[in-house]
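Let us practice reading a record.
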Amino acid sequence: MSSMLFVLRLSILLGWQDVKQAYRRSAIGPFWITGGMAVQVATMSLVFGLIFKADLKHYLPFLAISIVLWGFISASLTDGSNSFINADQIIRQLPLSPFVHTLRAFWKSIFTLAHNAIILPIVLVAVLQPIGLQTLLVIPGLILLALNLNWISMILAIASVRFRDLPPIVTSILTIAFYVTPVMWYPELIGNNTVAHFLLGLNPLYHLIQIVRLPLLNQMPTADNWYLSALFACVGWLVAILVVRRYQHKIAYWV
C-alpha cells in the first residue's frame, strides 16, 4: 500500500512539474490551449452544424464535450506511448516502478483536462442545458475512462520503447479514429445501417466517450456502454499486468 501511494504521489508531482515546465514564463499557461480549444469548438459547431443541419442548441454542447474529451484521450495515449522514451535518463538511474512514468503522462493530461473543462459549464449555461441526477454518472464514467487509458498507455509505452516507430503510428491511428468515432457527428446519423451499428459497437473509444458525454448532456448511457467499458478495463489491465511482469526488467536496456 505504501509503495502504491508513493507511486501515485510521485507521478502527480512529476506530472504537475511537466505542466509548469511546459508553460514556464507564459502569462496564462495552459489556458492558451483552453482558448484555442474554445475557438475550435465555436468554429466547428458553426461549420458542421450547417453541414449536418443540426440545432446549435443541441449540437454545441455535444461538440464541446466531445472535443474536450477527445483532446484528453488523444493526449493521454500520445504522451503515454512516449512516457518511457521521455523518461530515459530517470529510468537508467533510478529503479522506479514503470507505472510512475505512465501515470506521470496521465496526470499531465488530467491537469490539462481540468483547464479545458472550464469551457463546458460556459457552453451548458449558454444553451440552457438542464442538469439532472444523470450528471452524477460522469464520475464513474471518468473513472472507467481513466482505467482504460492507463492500461492502453502502459502497453503502448512498453511497445514504443522497444519499437521506436510506434509513437508516430499511434498518432496516425488516433487521427483516423477521430473521424470514425462520433466526435463531430451524432451516432444517430448512421440510421438503421446494421453493419455501421455493428462496427460502431466494436469501437471501444465510442463507448468510453459515451459514458462521460451522455451524463453531461443529461442522458443515460446504455447498458452496453457500461458493460463493454468495464470489460475493456478488466481484460486490458489483466493483459497489461502480464506484459509489465514480462518486460519491466528490459525497459532500462531498451531506452
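A brief commentary: The chain has a mean pLDDT of 86.
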